[in-house]
Write a structure and sequence with these properties.
This protein is of the alpha/beta class. Helices cover 57% and strands 17% of the residues. It has a domain of 112 residues. The protein contains 21 helices and 15 strands. The strands form 3 sheets. It has a 6-stranded antiparallel sheet, with helices on one face. A 6-stranded mixed sheet has the order 8-12-13-3-14-15, sandwiched between helices. A 3-stranded antiparallel sheet has the order 9-10-11. Strand 6 and strand 7 form a beta hairpin. The longest helix has 47 residues.
Length: 568
C-alpha cells in the first residue's frame, strides 16, 4: 500500500506531501488543476521516463519520494538481494532525484539503486492505468495477457517461453552451422592438402637441415680439405725435414743436456710428449685426408633435400621444429572439423527434441486458455452487466496455430476479445466497436475479475470515467469501491458519483502565489467533501439543494460501504 508521496519541484508542484489511506482514494479538482501530476510523479518514482520539462520552471532539481508498506513479500526481499539492495519485508522507501541536464539518482531504503531496479520493483507495488493503458487493451497481446492472468496461467506461459527460447537457440545454432558448411569443407580440403604436403617430405630430426647444411659444406670443399690435410701431414711427418724428424734431433741434444745438468730435467723433460702429440695430429690428418671422397651424386642429393626443406620452412616455418608444430595443429583442427557431420546430426535432433517440448507445453497452455476463456466470458459478461452494459455479449476467441512460422514465445494462440453492446447485434472485435466509455468500463471489469489473482498492490486509475456519466458512473464508482475492499485504489476522477465512493478524498487545486503558479493537494473532511461534490455537481456556486444531493450521495456511499445497499 502507498502510505505517502512527497513531491518537490515537479511540474507545477513546489512542495507537496500526501498521505493516502486504505481502500479507495479519490482525487478531484477543476480541469487543468494538475490532477494527473500525482499519477505522473508516482510513475516517475517507480522508474518511469524522465524529461527535463518535468522539473518545475526555474528549478534545476526535482525529486519524488514514495513510502510503501509491504505485506511481508519475500519476492521483493529476494529481488532486492539480487541487486545489492537490503529491502525491509514490511516497508520500502523510494526516492528518485532528477536534474535539468538529465542526470539523476535513485535511493531505495537510503541505499543507492538503479532505474532498472525500480522497473523490476514496480509490478510488486503499483498497477497504473490511464488512457494509454486502455488503448493498449485493444491489442491482442494485451488481451492474451489478461486472459492468462484471469486463468492463473502465468507459470505455464513462462514455461512455454523458456521452451521457445531453447528451441530457437538450437535452431539458430544449426542454421549458422549449416550456413558455414561450405566454409568448413573448403577448410578441410586446404588442411588436407597442407598435411599431405608436409607428410610427403617425410620429416626426420628437427635438426636435419642444419646437419645437411654442414654436409653440403664438406662436399663443396672436399678437394680443398684433402689438399690442406695432406699438405699439413707432409710438413709434420713425411718430408725429409719434417717437424717430427727435426724434433728427433732436438730431443737427442736435450737428452745430452739434461744428462750433464740434471737441474734442467723438470723444464725440458716433456719434449717427448710434445713430439708424440705432433705425431698424433699428423696421423689424424693422414686418416682424415684418406676419408674424404667427393661425390657429385651425394652433393646433388643434399642440395635437393635442402631445397625441399627450405620450401616447407618458407610456408610453415621458419624452422623445421615450427613445421612439425604446424603439422600437429593441422591434425588437431582436422579432428575438430571432421566431427561436423556428427555435430549437424546432433543439432538436427536437438532441434526436433526442443520443438517437441515447446509444442507439448504450448498445446497444454492452449487447452488451459480455451477452458479459461469460457469462464472469463461468463465472469466478464456478469461484471459488464453490473456496469450498466446490460445485454452485452462477450466472446473470447482463442485461435490456435502450431505452424513453425506462427509459433511465438507466449505460445501458439492468438487471443482476441469480441463484443456486442446491443442485444441481437453480431459480436465484433473490441477494437472496432467499443467507445471510450465502454473501453473504460471494460478495463475496470477486467481489473475487478482479475484482481483476486493478483497479489495486493496499489491500483491507480487515471480518468477511468472518460465517456460515462449518470447511472453508469454510479455503478463504476461502486465497483471501484468494491475493488478498494481488497486492495488500495487511487482514482483521478471528474465525476461526483465516483468521488462520493472514496474512503479518502483529496482535492487538487492550482493557485498563483506571487508570480508563480503552484498545484496543491488537500485531504477533505466530511464538510469539505460536501462542498467539493456540490461543485462537481452544480458548478462553482452550488445551491443548498445541490449540497443536499451531495450529502445524500455520501450517505448512500457510506451505507454501501457498510453493506446496507448497492451490492452487486
Amino acid at each position: 500500500m502507498l502510505k505517502c508521496l512527497h513531491i518537490v519541484n515537479f511540474a507545477l508542484v513546489d512542495q507537496l506531501g500526501i498521505e493516502f489511506g486504505p481502500g479507495l482514494n479519490v482525487l478531484t479538482g477543476e480541469t487543468g488543476s494538475g490532477k494527473s501530476i500525482v499519477v505522473d510523479a508516482l510513475g516517475l518514482v517507480l522508474g518511469g521516463r524522465f524529461s527535463p520539462e518535468m522539473i518545475r520552471s526555474g528549478e534545476t532539481k526535482s525529486y519524488v519520494e514514495a513510502l510503501f508498506s509491504l505485506p511481508n513479500r519475500t519476492e521483493v526481499v529476494e529481488l532486492g538481494a539480487s541487486h545489492g539492495v537490503d529491502v525491509d519485508p514490511e516497508e520500502i522507501l523510494i526516492r528518485r532525484e532528477v536534474t535539468a541536464p538529465g542526470r539523476g539518482r535513485v535511493f531505495v531504503n537510503n541505499q543507492l539503486a538503479t532505474v532498472q531496479f525500480l522497473k523490476l520493483l514496480r509490478p510488486f507495488l503499483v498497477d497504473i492505468h490511464g488512457q494509454g493503458d486502455q488503448q493498449s487493451l485493444l491489442q491482442p497481446a494485451a488481451q492474451a495477457d489478461a486472459l492468462d492472468r484471469f486463468g492463473g496461467l502465468e507459470e505455464l506461459v513462462a514455461g512455454v517461453g523458456e521452451a521457445f527460447l531453447r528451441w530457437q537457440s538450437v535452431r539458430s545454432e544449426l542454421i549458422s552451422f549449416q550456413a558455414h558448411e561450405s566454409d568448413r569443407l573448403r577448410r578441410i580440403d586446404m588442411l588436407a592438402f597442407q598435411k599431405q604436403e608436409i607428410m610427403g617430405v617425410r620429416l626426420g630430426s628437427p635438426e636435419e637441415d642444419l646437419e645437411l647444411e654442414a654436409e653440403r659444406n664438406l662436399l663443396a670443399n672436399a678437394e680443398r680439405l684433402a689438399s690442406l690435410a695432406n699438405g699439413a701431414y707432409q710438413v709434420l711427418y713425411e718430408d725429409e725435414s719434417s717437424v717430427v724428424t727435426r724434433m728427433v734431433g732436438v730431443s737427442r741434444k736435450l737428452d745430452e743436456l739434461m744428462a750433464i745438468d740434471a737441474s734442467t730435467q723438470e723444464a725440458l723433460g716433456g719434449m717427448d710428449s710434445v713430439r708424440y702429440a705432433i705425431e698424433d695430429i699428423a696421423f689424424f690428418l693422414r686418416d682424415y685426408a684418406e676419408r674424404i671422397h667427393f661425390s657429385p651424386d651425394r652433393h646433388k642429393e643434399v642440395e635437393d633435400r635442402l631445397a625441399e626443406l627450405q620450401r616447407l620452412k618458407r610456408k610453415y616455418g621458419p624452422s623445421l621444429r615450427d613445421v612439425q608444430a604446424t603439422l600437429q595443429a593441422i591434425n588437431q583442427e582436422l579432428g575438430k572439423l571432421d566431427v561436423g557431420e556428427d555435430h549437424i546430426r546432433r543439432l538436427e535432433q536437438a532441434v526436433i527434441d526442443a520443438q517437441e517440448v515447446y509444442l507439448r507445453k504450448a498445446h497444454h497452455l492452449s487447452r488451459q486458455r480455451h477452458e479459461a476463456a469460457r469462464r472469463f466470458e461468463a465472469a466478464l459478461t456478469g461484471e459488464l452487466q453490473y456496469l450498466a452494459m446490460e445485454g452485452t455479449a462477450v466472446e473470447v476467441r482463442v485461435a490456435t496455430d502450431d505452424r513453425e512460422t506462427v509459433a511465438q514465445v507466449k505460445g501458439i494462440d492468438t487471443v482476441e476479445f469480441f463484443l456486442s453492446a446491443n442485444v441481437g447485434e453480431e459480436v465484433r472485435s473490441l477494437a472496432k466497436v467499443a467507445s471510450g466509455g465502454e473501453i473504460s468500463r471494460f478495463m475496470l471489469a477486467l481489473k475487478t475479475i482479475t484482481a483476486p489473482t493478483d497479489f495486493p498492490r496499489t491500483m491507480v486509475f487515471d480518468e477511468v470515467d472518460v465517456g460515462i456519466g449518470g447511472r453508469v458512473a454510479e455503478t463504476v464508482g461502486q465497483r471501484l469501491q468494491r475493488l478498494g475492499d481488497r486492495q488500495q485504489v487511487l482514482c483521478v476522477t471528474h465525476l461526483p458519483q465516483i468521488a462520493a465512493k472514496g474512503g479518502t478524498h483529496f482535492v487538487v487545486s492550482k493557485a498563483t502565489i506571487g508570480n508563480r503558479t503552484a498545484t496543491s493537494v488537500t485531504p477533505l473532511n466530511k464538510v469539505e467533501r460536501v462542498e467539493e461534490l456540490a461543485r462537481m455537481i452544480g458548478g462553482t456556486i452550488p445551491t443548498d439543494a445541490i449540497r443536499r444531493t451531495a450529502r445524500e450521495m455520501l450517505g448512500r456511499a457510506e451505507k454501501e460501504k457498510k453493506g446496507e445497499g448497492g451490492k452487486g
